[in-house]
Each structure stands twice: as structure tokens, then as C-alpha cells.
Prior knowledge:
The chain is mostly helical. It has one domain (about 1-155): TspO/MBR protein (Ferritin, Up-down Bundle). Helix content is about 80%, strand content about 0%. It has 5 helices and no strands.
Amino acid sequence: xHWIALLFWIVLCLSVGFLxxxxxxxxxxxxxxxxxxxxxAPPNRLFAPVWTLLYLLMAVAVWLVLSAADVSQCHLxxxxxxxxxxxxxxxxxxxxxxxxxxxALVEIVLLWLAIGVTTLRFYSISPLAAGLMLPYWAWVSFxxxxxxxxxxxNRD
Length: 156
């Protein structure tokens, strides 16, 4: 039963990524390719494997927290995790589906803060789980700078 919970979190996190990528994939050849790309922008082919790994790490992290904590510790940790996951999902919609680069910048700052709070809460329950969140937080830090650069270079 313990492993079924891990499988649930893996499926949930990867599903969020997959659903968000649907907006991304349709906009890359149309809208995104016509944006001025910042010098720091990595090649498009890098995003899918990086995000897949990050979603897997997030899934293991939340699973570790929910496995290690007593029920009283789980509620806040789980709520924070779900909030950051929802913000993660929303960013793709705002940036790619709505083409709102400035609004996406505001949203990704909120996401960055939510990841930080989640990671700190995870640390109080499972330092390993918090450690698994750090690559995600680092990548979103980079993505925030990248989002700002896209906004700066493509303001109408």
C-alpha cells in the first residue's frame, strides 16, 4: 500500500506537467518562436527532461513527507504542496495559453515563494524530502529570471 501512494503522487505530478505541456507544445511553433529569446534561454529540447525529473523528485518528496509525518504534521505540508503544484500548473496557462508574460512573471514569483515555504515545511518533517525539492526551487529561480528577460525583451 505504501508504494501505491508513491505511484499516486508520481502520476499526479507528471499529469500536472503533461497537462501544462499541452499549452506549451501548441504555442512553441506559433507564438513562442516569434518572441525575442534571451541569451540565457536554454534550447527547447532541455525543458521536457528537466521538468520530468523535477516532477518525479517532487512526487518522491511529498510521498516521503506523508510517509514520515504524523497526521497533525501532514495537513499543512500537503496543503502547501498542492498550492505550489497548482501555481506550477497555472504558470503554463498564463504564459503560453494566454501570452501574458508580465502576469506570468508575477505568478512565477508567487510560485517561487510557495516552493520555498513548502520546502521549509518539508524540512521540519523530512530533511531528505526538502533536499529533493531544492533542484525544483533552483530551476524555478532560473525560470523566474528567464521569464523576466522574456518580459523585458518582448514588451509591446
